[in-house]
Write a structure and sequence with these properties.
115 residues, alpha+beta
Length: 115
């Protein structure tokens, strides 16, 4: 019985890791696409998982929210911060901290699952 329980816990951990890895790859793909569309460069070709949230900051999202952080540049000289937010598996928006101190919000269309 203990062995079965241990195997069940191990299976849950592996499944959770697999799903998180898939979301990470999707976040990276979406960031690459948005940076290219905005004429910006995604630095280090990477995104970093920042954390989970429930409730804020995405209003009307009643499921688990994920945030990924990344860095980009407008001119090749200065690093700037960005964040990509998901509501469940649906991307909601990207925020870009511009060099002039302004924050730009890029909202995703409701159905981007085919990306």
């Amino acid at each position: 019985m203990t062995t079965l329980f241990t195997l069940l816990i191990l299976a849950v951990v592996i499944l959770a890791w697999y799903q998180l890895r898939g979301m990470h790859e999707r976040a990276l793909q979406l960031c690459r696409l948005q940076m290219r569309q905005q004429g910006l460069q995604l630095l280090d070709e990477s995104v970093a998982f920042q954390g989970f949230s429930i409730g804020k900051p995405i209003q009307h999202c009643q499921c688990l929210q994920r945030c990924y952080r990344f860095e980009f540049t407008e001119d090749g000289n200065q690093r700037q911060q960005g964040q990509l937010w998901f509501c469940g598996k649906q991307p909601v928006y990207i925020t870009l901290e511009r060099a002039d101190g302004q924050t730009e919000w890029i909202h995703f269309k409701r159905d981007t699952r085919s990306m």
